[in-house]
Write a structure and sequence with these properties.
The chain is built from 2 helices and 4 strands; from the N terminus they run βαββαβ. β2 and β3 form a beta hairpin. The longest helix has 13 residues. The structure holds iron/sulfur cluster (SF4). The site of iron/sulfur cluster has 14 residues, from α1. This is Ferredoxin.
Length: 67
């Protein structure tokens, strides 16, 4: 699994950061993104369910998961 955030859709609500702070972070400028350490990297299995949960609850459908 790989994950990214579509910045054109994200409303920076912070839900994904609350659900999975290991992968998502709020930047100093107030935008939310995947942490640099996980960009274009495979998400470890133990975090996949939390990333999926963040995806499913994103109100803007901005989280893109690639299997
Ligand atoms: S849950 Fe969705 S809209 Fe909210 S900060 Fe995360 S990616 Fe952006």
């Amino acid at each position: 699994m790989k994950v990214s955030i579509d910045p054109t859709k994200c409303i920076a609500c912070g839900s994904c950061v609350a659900v999975c702070p290991e992968v998502f972070e709020m930047k100093e400028d107030g935008t939310v993104d995947v942490k640099s350490e996980w960009k274009d990297k495979a998400i470890p299995e133990e975090l996949e369910s939390k990333v999926q949960e963040a995806h499913d609850m994103c109100p803007a459908t901005a989280i893109v998961i690639e299997q």
